[in-house]
Task: inverse folding
């Protein structure tokens, strides 16, 4: 027997345990009547959650897991749609992403990941009011739990805004909701910054610097991505100057750097179990199933074409200043894509390097070469790379693009840079233009939610 739980228009099946079935079978066989009413001592009802502030940490842990699974999948599909990952297996829908077809609602990977992204969004808006209620009542044992929940909510909203053309927010389990609309997707970033703002109030009061750092960094990312959204999607097109210089993002990035205390600092979601990655686990698809691998711009594949060669010989990316193997890419590939032990991989959501990249780009946009040089070299110093100077044969724009490419690898950031800087991914087909296109509301959602865009198979206009 199964129950159906519906979140964001998509129903999830959950099995009642097999013990009840087994007891019932035994009863029939022996003609003896046994009660099949079995109570699970570990079961927690919703009423118990509503009344027990002690459940706060568990609620945040559950939210963390939901956001982790969603982000794990988005980094894979976004990576495959960019030049970061490439298809080498048997699943055709990885190939379609690889050649640049992002807009198909029927794609099994973007269709399959949508319920988990929707679930994480729903979970955030389920957990926050409960923790806010505990906090208001003075029964929240650790207020950092609430600040962390605000961070997680901001993370999933930012990921949605960065990677989707449209989304459904109003659905609540068995209640359908309409889509936000492509023209209104900026609300994702506005919601994210509202959450980080609330979280920062708590983290500051607690003098919790690590929490402040990741909240400030996500706030900077959300504001920066909102500015990118306005540049590429409202209206859709290619501005003469793609560089972003947003005062709010800049201020938050500078504050985040101070709170991080190290230019190497990052907040990375932990590895997850192979079967806990949602519809698919990006690490498993790369390192176990061998459906995808790092792209040719980053690695030299083995003879079978399925993995990078071992060591530095497996890296094709070159540092533009030294002309030598890029050490950042080597570290990235070792972490995510090389060893059999990396079936389970994490992903970075906030980092000091991204803050430096935001500030470097803003300086370049405003013509401040001196500050650009300082910021870009602060990134390079983390990996013991020689400084870039204005006299270099590598332009400031090119060193910025390279620095973003290697330091934000598999963080769902590269696709936007393809569009902004008019850089085609190496596997995109000739008919694939550079018009910005992101993931659609899934076929599954459209089938089950009559308020979502119909007919179910329609592609976003921007992806046609």
Result:
């Amino acid at each position: 027997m199964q129950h159906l739980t519906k979140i964001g228009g998509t129903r999830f099946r959950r099995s009642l345990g097999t013990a009840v079935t087994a007891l019932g079978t035994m009863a029939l066989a022996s003609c003896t009547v046994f009660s099949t009413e079995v109570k699970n001592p570990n079961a927690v009802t919703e009423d118990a959650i509503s009344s027990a502030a002690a459940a706060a940490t568990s609620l945040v842990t559950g939210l963390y897991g939901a956001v982790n699974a969603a982000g794990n999948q988005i980094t894979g599909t976004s990576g495959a749609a960019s030049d970061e990952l490439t298809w080498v297996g048997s699943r055709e829908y990885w190939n379609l992403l690889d050649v640049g077809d992002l807009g198909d609602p029927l794609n099994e990977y973007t269709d399959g990941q949508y319920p988990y992204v929707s679930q994480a969004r729903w979970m955030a808006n389920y957990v926050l009011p409960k923790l806010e209620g505990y906090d208001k009542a003075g029964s929240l044992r650790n207020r950092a739990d609430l600040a962390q929940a605000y961070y997680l909510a901001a993370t999933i909203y930012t990921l949605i805004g960065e990677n989707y053309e449209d989304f459904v927010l109003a659905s609540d389990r068995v209640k359908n909701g309409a889509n936000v609309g492509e023209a209104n997707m900026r609300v994702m970033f506005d919601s994210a910054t509202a959450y980080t703002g609330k979280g920062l109030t708590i983290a500051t009061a607690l003098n919790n610097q690590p929490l402040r750092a990741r909240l400030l960094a996500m706030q900077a990312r959300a504001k920066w991505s909102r500015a990118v959204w306005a540049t590429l999607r409202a209206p859709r097109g290619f501005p003469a100057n793609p560089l972003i210089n947003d005062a709010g993002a800049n201020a938050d990035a500078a504050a985040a750097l101070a709170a991080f205390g190290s230019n190497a600092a990052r907040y990375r979601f932990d590895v997850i179990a192979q079967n806990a990655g949602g519809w698919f686990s990006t690490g498993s698809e790369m390192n176990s199933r061998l459906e995808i691998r790092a792209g040719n711009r980053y690695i030299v594949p083995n003879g079978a074409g399925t993995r990078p060669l071992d060591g530095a010989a497996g890296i094709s990316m070159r540092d533009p200043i030294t002309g030598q193997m890029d050490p950042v890419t080597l570290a990235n590939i070792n972490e995510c894509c090389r060893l059999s032990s990396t079936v389970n991989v994490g992903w970075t959501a906030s980092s000091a390097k991204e803050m430096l990249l935001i500030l470097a780009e803003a300086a370049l946009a405003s013509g401040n070469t001196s500050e650009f040089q300082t910021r870009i070299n602060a990134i390079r110093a983390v990996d013991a790379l020689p400084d870039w100077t204005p006299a270099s044969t590598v332009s400031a724009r090119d060193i910025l693009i390279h620095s973003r490419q290697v330091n934000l690898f598999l963080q769902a950031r590269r696709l936007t840079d393809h569009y902004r800087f008019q850089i085609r991914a190496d596997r995109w087909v000739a008919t694939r233009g550079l018009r910005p296109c992101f993931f659609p509301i899934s076929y599954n959602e459209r089938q089950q939610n009559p308020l979502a865009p119909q007919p179910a198979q329609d592609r976003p206009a921007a992806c046609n």
